[in-house]
Specification:
The chain is of the alpha/beta class and 734 residues long. Helix content is 37%, strand content 19%. The strands form five sheets. The chain has an eight-stranded mixed sheet, sandwiched between helices. A seven-stranded mixed sheet has the order 4-13-20-17-14-16-15, sandwiched between helices. The chain has a five-stranded mixed barrel with strand order 21-22-23-25-24. Bound molecules: cytidine-5'-diphosphate (CDP) and magnesium ion.
């Protein structure tokens, strides 16, 4: 429970509603404090079964400007923006008054570091200013984003502001989705895409300006881009490089880019009151829901919207369900609460919803991943609920295992999140952890991704760019040497590098595919086994990123049966995916088929898109399309040619041991081979939930390992005794 003494006067929307007293609604009980009520009729208490108690911890200061605040709140409730209104909005952004100074600075310096509060207009405005100033006469303006959703939504916004159709002068490009054309001069893209563009155009001659945006996020690709961009800037004096960041520690960027000047865009920020829970919360999802309802029921809706930070799609869907369930209990007695989820796999047409104006008297609650921390600005947020977690990649170079784990955020993240509430008026942030945790348990900053990632893809890219000495590469923060060695070792094992660490023909072909090296190797190897048509279908299905099957709670048995139909004969999960794809194709992409088989339409369409692109890339590396549907052994061998480092051998009762650096793993419950438990398997990936699970599993014959990867497996390793330890030695020099 929290109550802000300053808000006492505002807190009266339900005071007159006698019938609410001690009325059990869903899991929540709303009740007026009877003693207080006699004395002060407009005061009430909201009681939930698991009430959350907060203590006000501090107020983050900000520069308050009341006049602008009013302007902006009025704007945020207006109807769909017209072109003129959008121009007014552009002019009201903090960056607008620095436009001329900024353009002058860009003219005077080749590399400029730009720092400005999130929402000040860096991403949407700077490329437009440069376009208006004529920079696009000499080449495109490229602006990178760490996140796909951000690239898409920012491009959409900018094309709206310019009054043109998306994909024409303004476009975006993300992996497997290119929404640009020859006309495109403002190109928003993920950092990974720009990295790949270096392969086709090493000096990026078609660009006049490169803006590496959201630099503070320090994603793996952004960190690699820093090195490459710094390098090409030396021999392309005409190229302008902008490094933009939302955090103030820009000196590090400046130092790295040979003391590039820093341009500060003073932000507009209002004070934010921070509230912490009194005690740690055991169930932060429930706590987040209760807090959101507490806010919604006690604060007038016109006041502002709520933003909840969650770790991923699953949590967001969970919270959405719980919220809907609890809101149903209130019926129409309370103001409408509109739930807007946003995460990277959310279908594009639903993403726009978070920016849409809402009916008068309603309130929006945005359920977002870290994407809303700095990449996306949603106007009108006044309350932030921060459970204090995010999903973070971690990598163990010893075992070569990468995992995505729910991890406490850093202090810097917590502050960014809180700041999201004070953009258009004074805000409040409710942290679902104690002040003690904030000060004593959270790290100051998030560790850059390069220090906690598998680097095999990056190393392959660098090698294909002709950068031989990857160990002494000029990284802003060098990755652990062990990670680089591990990457070299894997690429050598896959045949992408020779033993001097030089790129081979296989490696060159692999680098053409925007995929993980093991997947690329599988595709390249499919040439030998004459089944490239099947393998690209499998690779596409594995790359979709969202689930293929769905299983409604009330029809679970039917859905499971439908799914198992693709697994007949214990073909393994890879071939089952192929069966799904082919069966869809055979019905001529019929709609009926989705329903009968409990398949996600969107995932299949995406798989088809990806497959088409992989097919194009096959041509580029001069691999013919060959089909060998009947020969499942050939298909499995091609899979193993890429994934032999992911082989495992059963020890007993469903307990497997991975072969390289033994680790105990299990078959994922979603696998068709869960009950068959073959003795030897190859898996696509490991996921850690309650146990370490292998996902997408296919049976193999141990002799195949010796046949396909003789440099890693000897016959004596795989034959005979089960307990014998297998080894894989990649004797490699870099
Ligand atoms: O990059 P920075 O965080 O400095 O700001 P921005 O992304 O350029 O956003 C500036 C303003 O544009 C935001 O305050 C939003 O009002 C608006 N915007 C939007 O309405 N829709 C988007 N997809 C992106 C930005
Ligand atoms: Mg931005």
């Amino acid at each position: 429970r929290y109550r802000d003494p300053n808000d006492e006067n505002k807190v009266k929307p339900f005071a007159e509603q006698e019938s609410w007293e001690e009325n059990q609604i869903g899991k929540a009980i709303l009740k007026f404090g009877s003693r207080d009520r006699k004395q002060k009729s407009d005061e009430f208490e909201l009681v939930f079964e698991n009430q959350i108690e907060f203590i006000k911890a501090e107020v983050m200061d900000g520069r308050s400007d009341k006049r602008e605040s009013v302007e902006l709140t009025e704007k945020s409730i207006m109807a769909k923006p017209t072109f003129d209104k959008l121009q007014d909005e552009r002019k009201s952004l903090p960056i607008y008054r620095y436009k001329d100074k900024l353009l002058r600075a860009i003219n005077d310096h080749q590399i400029l570091v730009i720092v400005g509060e999130t929402g000040s207009g860096k991403t949407t405005q700077i490329p437009q200013y440069l376009h208006e100033a004529g920079f696009t006469k000499f080449g495109k303006i490229g602006c990178t984003q760490p996140r796909r959703v951000a690239a898409m939504s920012v491009a959409a916004r900018v094309s709206q502001e310019m009054g043109i159709k998306m994909g024409h002068e303004v476009g975006y490009s993300i992996r497997f989705e290119d929404c640009t054309c020859e006309k495109t001069v403002l190109k928003y893209m993920t950092d990974g895409i720009l990295l790949r563009e270096f392969l086709g155009e090493p000096d990026l001659a078609s660009y006049s300006v490169l803006m590496v945006d959201e630099a503070h996020e320090r994603t793996l690709s952004t960190d690699v881009l820093f090195v490459l961009v710094k390098d090409i800037a030396r021999f392309r004096p005409d190229l302008k490089v902008l490094i933009s960041s939302a955090t103030l520690d820009a000196e590090k960027f400046s130092d790295y880019f040979d003391s590039a000047p820093i341009f500060y865009v003073p932000g507009r920020r209002y004070p934010v009151e921070i509230h912490n829970t009194k005690a740690p919360e055991a169930d932060y999802l429930d706590a987040a829901v209760v807090t959101a309802l507490q806010i919604h029921l006690t604060q007038p809706p016109g006041d502002g919207d709520i933003l909840i930070f969650l770790t991923g799609q699953e949590e967001i869907e969970n919270v959405e369900d719980i919220l809907k369930y609890r809101l149903r209990g209130f019926g129409s007695k309370i103001a409408e609460l509109i739930i807007c989820p946003i995460y990277s796999n959310l279908p594009t047409e639903l993403q726009a919803k978070i920016f849409e104006p809402i009916p008068q008297g309603a309130r929006k609650v945005v359920l977002a991943t870290n994407i809303a921390e700095t990449s996306l600005t949603i106007d009108g947020i006044k309350y932030v609920i921060d459970p204090g977690f995010c999903k973070m990649k971690s990598y163990n170079p010893r075992t070569g295992m990468e995992s995505l784990l729910v991890t406490p955020i850093s202090k810097a993240s917590a502050d960014q999140r809180a700041g999201r509430s004070g953009r258009t008026s004074p805000g409040k942030c409710f942290r679902l952890y104690t002040a003690y945790t904030y000060y004593n348990d959270l790290e100051d900053n998030t560790v850059p991704e390069i220090k906690r990632s598998n680097l095999s893809n990056v190393v392959l890219t660098l090698k294909s760019l002709g950068i031989h000495n990857v160990v002494n590469f000029d990284f802003m923060d060098p990755p652990p040497e062990e990670s680089i060695l591990k990457a070299l070792e894997l690429l050598y094992a896959l045949g992408a590098l020779n033993k001097h660490g030089e790129l081979t023909k296989v490696g060159r072909r692999m680098a053409e595919f925007p995929l993980d090296p093991m997947l690329s190797k599988m595709i390249v190897a499919s040439d030998k086994y004459k089944c490239s048509a099947e393998i690209i279908s499998i690779a596409a299905m594995l790359s979709v990123g969202s689930s293929i099957f769905y299983s409604p709670k009330n029809r679970k048995v039917l859905a499971d049966n439908a799914r198992m139909n693709f697994h007949v004969g214990n073909v393994g999960d890879h071939i089952a995916l192929l069966n799904v794809y082919n069966s869809w194709k055979e019905t001529d992409y019929s709609t009926q088929w989705y329903y009968e088989n409990f398949i996600q339409v969107r995932s299949m369409k995406r798989a088809r898109d990806i497959r088409d692109q992989l097919k194009g890339l096959l041509e580029r590396v001069e691999i013919g399309l060959s089909s060998n549907l009947k020969d499942t052994e050939a298909i499995k061998k091609a899979i193993i040619a890429g994934f032999f480092p992911h082989s495992a051998h059963m020890q007993k009762n469903g307990l497997y041991r991975t072969i390289k650096l033994p680790q105990t793993v299990y078959i994922h419950p979603s696998s068709g081979l869960l009950h068959a438990r073959p003795s030897w398997v190859v898996y696509h990936e490991l996921v850690l939930t309650s146990k370490e699970y292998m996902r997408q599993v296919t049976e193999l014959k141990p002799e195949w390992l010796v046949e396909i990867a003789p440099h890693c497996f000897k016959l004596k390793d795989v034959a005979g005794s089960d307990s014998k330890k297998q080894t894989c030695e990649g004797d490699l020099v870099s």
